[in-house]
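= Tokenised fold =
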Amino acid sequence: MDSQPNKRPRWPKGVKPQPHDLAFKSLYGFRLMAEDLFEIVLRQELLDRINWATLERLPTEWFGPDLDRRLGDCVWRVQLRGGGSLIVPIEFQRGLDRLMPLRLSTYSSLLVEDLDKRGELDRGPKGRILPLVRPVVLYNGLRPWRSPFCLSALTPDGMGGWPEMTLLDMGRVSVEDLPKGNAVTAQVEALQGGLARDADGLLERMATRLGGSEHRALRSAFVEWVWHSVAPDLGAEAALLEPELMRIVELGEVREMKTLMMKSMVDHWVAEGRTEGEARVRADQRAQLRRQADRKFGQRAADRLDGLIRGVTDPERLVEVGDWIIDCRTEAEFLARAER
């Protein structure tokens, strides 16, 4: 059964994580997501040594000198056959960060020191030994990642001690290059528009990997992540995603029914997500119509249209207004239709 994510941390004063960050962290608090991510980012010879029964999530709060508090996103540890352990710190990024290797090396040092303080370092023939550390960055930014991957790229002589981080550019990686039947692959597909292009295929693949009552909480976290991380970037087009989200929400526990969500998630999504989401989508549609009218007929027509459609929530009516903007040749003709 999937492990439940840890409680959300208390964030430092002045730092307020965005909903998509929290949704990401919640999603990768589940064993299955960690296992599937390892399949993508680790070499096969290292995967073959993993004792999956020992996979555990580690704390992501550490204290440096002078009680300097650091918070990571997600950390998993697993024992290796033949001795030693592997630690995978996972960080989620939407923006470029040239010093990302330095940040990850700081986190890695602090978490290893924390293990030492708790007496949890591995033991070798000559005493305590350090774990293998393989940092992973899950990047979902607008621009391609051109920042360094390792500390050596930040030094004048090209020397650095910590291993190079692994970057998974979720918006640009080819889905065909990722393993089939993998939950992270399904997440990448969703990020790249899979719910709009091939909803049946994506849901079938999700059902294969995430079906069953033991994955209820993970399915709930997945839909919450979609709502906070995929839908907001679509603007008015999020209306097209809404039916597919509802399909996921309404899915049951059997693969043949292609259903993935428990009733409590339906209640949560309908109560907190759907109403707010619909309002946001309609507001985006109205704003887009105003911009289109301004571009074709000028500011006066746009201001008049803004007043006329301010309370309109019917999506079909708003689509009709968009047709008028395209079809009408003059401002007078357009405003006459809008006022009627």
